[in-house]
Amino acid sequence: LLLAVLLWAPWRALHGAPLTELSGDQDFQLFLQRNLEFTRKIRGDVAALQRVVCDTLHLCKEDELLLVRQDLDIAQAPLEQCHRRTFQAETCFSQIRAGLRIYHGSLATIRALLPGHAGLVETLQLDMANLSSNIQQQMEDLGLATVTYPTENQDPVPTFSSHFHHQVGGFFILANFQRFLETAYRALRHLTSL
């Protein structure tokens, strides 16, 4: 219970206060270390797919594609609860899980775009599902509220009006996902420093 109360403290207080009670919780610290590594692996796999998109489709620079992006309906998962000054672990973890679910579905676009790399996409989707499950389990262990998502994907896969839009959409899905993972990684890393 004390751990759950400490996790509700504002970001500013967490940043400056030496919370020995939290840092001494070995199970929580082990969870954070394992999932930092897991997040790092997922980031590496997304970066590998971004290199494939750059090398094979010659879509490498985001600023060159911004005009096309306006025509696309690409989901961008919010993570504002993971870097606000009023940081709360429960809402941050919930946003990470919701974002993983959104990107899990969006990766079907990448699999269709890069059929030769379907194995990497499937591995990435499995890793994302496992990370989400790890976070849910940790939230339950801490007594935090969790949302259980249905196993079948409820989010529609993006549709595109042309093959080029499909390619650019794939580029932005990966770019958005990489930014999402960087924020999630920073939030987990911050919790290790408490």
TrEMBL record:
- Gene3D superfamilies given in the database record: 1.20.1250.10
Q: Where in the cell is it found?
A: Secreted
Signal peptide coordinates: 1-16
Q: Which InterPro entries match?
A: 4_helix_cytokine-like_core, GCSF/MGF, IL-6/GCSF/MGF, IL6/GCSF/MGF_CS
Q: Which GO terms describe its molecular function?
A: cytokine activity; granulocyte colony-stimulating factor receptor binding; growth factor activity
Q: Alphabetically, which GO biological process terms does the record hold?
A: immune response; positive regulation of myeloid cell differentiation
Q: Which family does it belong to?
A: Belongs to the IL-6 superfamily.
Q: What is this protein called?
A: MGF factor
Its source organism is Peucedramus taeniatus (Olive warbler)
